[in-house]
Amino acid sequence: MIRRSRAGAALLSLAVVAGLAACSKSGDDASSGDAVTLDYWLWDDNQKASYQACADAFHADNPNITIKITQSAWDQYWQNLTTQVAAGEAPDVWTNQGSYYPQFVTSGQILDLQPYVKADNVDLSQYQAGLAELFEKDGKRYGLPKDWDTMAVVYNTDLLKAQGLDAAALKDLTWNPTDGGTFEQAIAKATVDANGKNGLDPAFDKGKVKTFGFLPEWKDGSQGQNGWGNFAAMLGFTYLDKNPWGTQYKYDDPRLAQVIDWYKGLIAKGYSPALDQKSTLANDALMNAGKGAMTITGSWMINSYLGDSAKVKFAFAPLPAGPQGRKSAINGLSDAIWSGTEHKDEAWKWVKFLASTDCQDIVANNAVVFPAIKTASEKALAAHESKGRDVQPFIDEATAPGGTFFLPITDKGSEVSQIVQDAIQSAVLGQTDSATALKKANEQVNALFK
Amino acid sequence: MRATKRRDDRRAAWWFLLPVLVGFTVFYGYPAVRGLWYSVTDYTMLNTPSYVGAENYTELMRDSEFWHSLLVTGWYVLLNIGSQTILALGLAALMHRLTRSVVLRATLLLPWLVPNVTIGLLWMWLLDTNLGFLNHLLGTLGLGPVGFLSDATWAMPSIAAINTWAYTGYTALLLYAGMLQIPQHLYESAAIDGANEFRMFRRITLPLLRPVLALVLVVSLIGSFQIFDTIAVTTKGDPVGATRAIYYFIYEEAFRFFHLGYAAAAAICLALILGVLTVIQMRLLRASRSDLA
C-alpha cells in the first residue's frame, strides 16, 4: 500500500515536472535570444503546403528562427484566435481577413508595421493596387498583403454545350436589373426541366426543374461577395460612406433592393431554386451533382472546380457587365504580428519574407491562390496554365481599370453580417419586400456604430 | 464509542468525495461564479471586463432575437419531448410485455451511440432538397421536393425528428428499466381478472412508472432545451432564425460576436428558466414519492 502510493507520488511529481518543463520551453527560447520558434496561424488547408515551403526557405536563410505553422478550419479559426489572444497566448504571426481583423486593431492586439516598413523600405507599389491600403488605419499599418481573390461565373461545360452555349457565348454577357440582359437569357437557356425543355421554351415546366440555370448564394453575410454584392456594384452601389473604416452603411440604397428583386425574379421563373427549397449543401456540391449549370464563385475555389476532385467538367467565365460596367469584388488577406509577441524583430523578418517575392513566388508556383505581388500573380497564372487551367477571367477582372471594388472593412463585422444576411433571406423568402427589409436592416446596422 | 466511529466514517467519506468536489468546484462552481460576474460586465474577451450593472439583462428583455430564440426553443422542446416520450413509452411497453431480447435492446441504443455531429451530417444529406434520399423517395411518389431544413415551417420539426430518432431508444431503455421494477404479480392478477394489455398499461404500468417517468422527463427536458449540435451542423440557425434556439443564440453572441457579458446574461436567464421548469415538473409528478411504497 505504502509502496504503491509512493510510486504514485513519484509519477505525479514526474508529471508536474514534465508540465513545468513544457511551460518553460518557450521562455527559454526568449532568454537565450538565438533559437526562436515563431507560431504562425492560417486557415486554408489548401495553402498550408505552400506556406510550409516558405517556412522552410525562411529557416534556411535564418537558421535561428523556426516557423511552426498551425492550420485550423475557417469556422474555428477566429474563435481559437480570439481565445488565444484573450489568454495572452496568441500566435506571433497570423493570417487576417477584412471582416475579422478590425476587432484586433480596436483592442490593440496588432503591431503597427509602419515603422518597420519605413526602416526596411518595403516597396508597397509592388502589390496589386489597393491591397496594402486595406490594412491601414490612421497612418498605422496592421499587416502586409499576401494574396487576393476576385469573382467569376463557373459553369458546367457539358450542360451548357447541350444548350448551345460555349465559352465564346459567355464571354461578353450583359446584365441589368430589369430583364437581366443576355446573362438572364443564358441562365434561362441553361435551365432544363424534366422533359428536356429549357427555360426559353414556352412548354418549360418550372415545377419540374432538373437543372437550375443559376445557383444563388444566400449565406453571403453583409457583403454578397458570391453574388448580389457584385451586381449591386455594377449599378453603382457602395456599401459605406468610406472604406475601409466607414461608420455609415448604405444598405437602404434602392439599387440593392433592385438586385434582390431581380434574384427573386429568377426564383419565380424557375431558373433558380427557391430559398425555402434550397439545399443545405454548398453550391459546389450541387454543381458537382449537376443540379446547377452556373454559379458565381471566387478564385480561391479554382482547385475545387478544376482539380481532380471535380466530378464534372467546369470552366470559368467573366461576370456579366452591368450598367456601370463589369465589377468584381476583390478581397485581400494579410499577415499581422501580435502586439504581445516577445519576438517582434523575428516576427517582422518572417512577415517581410511572407510579403516578398521570395515567398509569394513559391506560393504562385503551387497554383492555389493569386499572390498579392503583381509579378507573382503572373507566375501563378502561368502555373495554372501549365496545368491546363484557364483562370484568365479572374486576372482580367483584377487588372481592368475600375473592374473591382473592395469589400467593406469596419468594426462590428460579424454583427453586421448576421443582420444583413437575415434581412436578405427574409426578403427572398417573401416575408417582407426587399426595400423594407433592407431599410430596417440598415437602421439596425447603423445603430451599432452609435 | 458509537458516535466517534460514525464521525470517523464521515471523515473517510469526505476523503472519498474530495476528487469529485475538487472537480465540481474547478469545472462547475468556479465557471458558474465567473459566468455570473461576466453577466454584469461588458466583457468581449479582448477587453478588461468592467461592471455595467443590469444593463445586459435590460438589453436582453428588449432584444426580440432573444425572445424569438426562446419561442423557437419552446416549439422544439414541445415537438421533441412529445414525440420522444410517446414513442419511447410505446417501445418500452412492447419490450416489457412481449420480448426481452437483448439484441433488440442493443439495436435501440445504436443511434444514441452515434456522435451528435455525425447524426447531424447524416441527416443533413438524407433530408437535403436536391440530393437527399428522402426527397428522392417523395419525388418517385410525385411529391415534393420539401425543404426539410431550408423551409421555415419544416426546419424545426425536422431537427426535432432527427433528435427523436437519436434519443428514443435510450429513453425507451430507461423507461423499460423502470417497468422492470413493477411487480410481475400485478399483471398476473390483472390478467386473471380479464384486463387487456391496454388497460394494464393505463392502470398498472403508467401510474407505477411515474417516478421514473418524472426523472426521465426532467432530464430530457433539460437536454432538449440545450439543443445545439444538430443545429450547428445542419441549419446554423437558418432560415432567418427559424432554428436559432437559445443555445445557438448564446453561442453566436459569445463566440461569433464576442459579446461574452451579454451571452453570460442570456445563459443565466436560461438557467433560471430551467430551474423553475424543473421544480414545477417535479411537483406535478410528485417525483420523489413512489406509489409502490
TrEMBL record, chain A:
Keywords: Signal, Transport. Residues 1-21 form the signal peptide. InterPro entries: Bact_solute-bd_prot1, SBP. It is found in: Cell envelope. Belongs to the bacterial solute-binding protein 1 family. This is Sugar ABC transporter substrate-binding protein. It comes from Asanoa iriomotensis. The lineage of its organism: Bacteria, Bacillati, Actinomycetota, Actinomycetes, Micromonosporales.
TrEMBL record, chain B:
PANTHER family: ABC TRANSPORTER PERMEASE PROTEIN, DIACETYLCHITOBIOSE UPTAKE SYSTEM PERMEASE PROTEIN NGCF. It comes from the Bacteria. This is Sugar ABC transporter permease. Gene3D superfamilies: MetI-like. It is found in: Cell membrane. Residues 66-281 form the ABC transmembrane type-1 domain. Pfam families: BPD_transp_1 (PF00528). It is a multi-pass membrane protein. Keywords: Cell membrane, Membrane, Transmembrane, Transmembrane helix, Transport. The lineage of its organism: Bacteria, Bacillati, Actinomycetota, Actinomycetes, Micromonosporales. Its main location: membrane. Belongs to the binding-protein-dependent transport system permease family. The chain crosses the membrane at residues 12-30, 66-94, 106-126, 154-177, 208-228, 257-280.
